[in-house]
Fold:
Amino acid sequence: MQLLPLAPGRLRQGSPRHLPSCSPALLLLVLGGCLGVFGVAAGTRRPNVVLLLTDDQDEVLGGMPFSEYSTTNCQTGLQGEELRQEHLRTYLELSRTPLKKTKALIGEMGMTFSSAYVPSALCCPSRASILTGKYPHNHHVVNNTLEGNCSSKSWQKIQEPNTFPAILRSMCGYQTFFAGKYLNEYGAPDAGGLEHVPLGWSYWYALEKNSKYYNYTLSINGKARKHGENYSVDYLTDVLANVSLDFLDYKSNFEPFFMMIATPAPHSPWTAAPQYQKAFQNVFAPRNKNFNIHGTNKHWLIRQAKTPMTNSSIQFLDNAFRKRWQTLLSVDDLVEKLVKRLEFTGELNNTYIFYTSDNGYHTGQFSLPIDKRQLYEFDIKVPLLVRGPGIKPNQTSKMLVANIDLGPTILDIAGYDLNKTQMDGMSFLPILRGASNLTWRSDVLVEYQGEGRNVTDPTCPSLSPGVSQCFPDCVCEDAYNNTYACVRTMSALWNLQYCEFDDQEVFVEVYNLTADPDQITNIAKSIDPELLGKMNYRLMMLQSCSGPTCRTPGVFDPRYRFDPRLMFSNRGSVRTRRFSKHLL
Structure:
């Protein structure tokens, strides 16, 4: 379908013309596989869906206002009345946490998931999992580079035609709208440049490459538009808000719609809107139990972090934490504007709104200053709020979900037969509707392929090649052999994480998060060997799974059956898990 150019005149900057639409009669022909519960045949207008995706927003360390955030976040070394006053100032700052409107308008009006995970703690692999509903070993995006399949020609040819927005458009008759950051290498000249518009999008308003707030280029339906540094017309979060409101004003009223709005916040460079640049001046990164301690009994990459951190590193990460919160205030404004516009147009009661992030983030945990990529809760756990038809307000679900479930859930809302997809995830629509006696998963897979530099970092001459992200103070956040895979398990009796590294040690980390929620103590050498063997086997099975086999019962599921014979190949040797060095 040819996309129309922007309309001149009275529309706000970046607004779409009326998009091509189907007549009701033609729409019935298009909807063959998408009638389902909400179908036209049942006389019910099909629900709309909005997916709000932030960039690098954690859940564990105060990224959402419902996260625990201790008053120990204030500066240490104070005593008596001075300490009391500092606690008071911190409390007052925390009463103005970011995203309070988001919590009220989405979380309190629907369901908050307290156990939502990503299958890879890095932007491009995680976003690819959202779009495809697949684990990284099935969509083959392993890092943020073209060589790692991030928005590559291979991705465009093999995966993009089968994303859930493409199915919504081609099979379900939805008008589809995208605004914001797509994949980190989108717009690269070697992958079609900004002229490339992925299949399935009726309207395309995508950022070139990685997150920025000013001085960026957008692809407007395949045509480049440069933005400068004038706040009133260029601040990206506000630009995304405006174009989203315009879409709601000028879209077709004959088709349901899907909107995906992907903000730059709270990703670096953490540029807040002018009115928010002085917010949270007395807020500091959380000083939880794993802050600024040595990663004893962990993988060598964690152990190499300098402990205690330097004062300059602590000041840097505190400033980063504060600025991240500042950028989220504009996201909060975006959410409020969007919900109010949906209410004004009469669409709110027939619209599902999802709010989540592509991965978490850490600020000083195990003396790692700032980044993501690691296997721990602060990097792999994300916020997930959902409101919509049939969802009771003020609900909290502890069910284990992952971002590979977003596509299947949204397709389920559209009435599409999920058996026709090749997705690894599963629909959590029954959870949203409050289904009882629901059989659900007990584990998810987390996998990451480490990256390193082939040469020594000139700013850190004492370091050998093979490491990367060595900032600040030459503390490295990644390396070639920071390649790992984990089974994250949650059941009535167990809250466990089992991880293996692809290195010379074949290093193993295991955590009992019931007893040790901060993941300080690696129990790999003390846990029951039989259980360790079962977890190893389960990890091998998940790393080779595809579609339905990714949804088989986990070790602590009553339906689980362990067959040790499957651990041996036809030659009789023990099967070992293999990490692909290049999955393209």
User: Anything to note?
Assistant: The first strand starts at residue 48 and ends at 54.
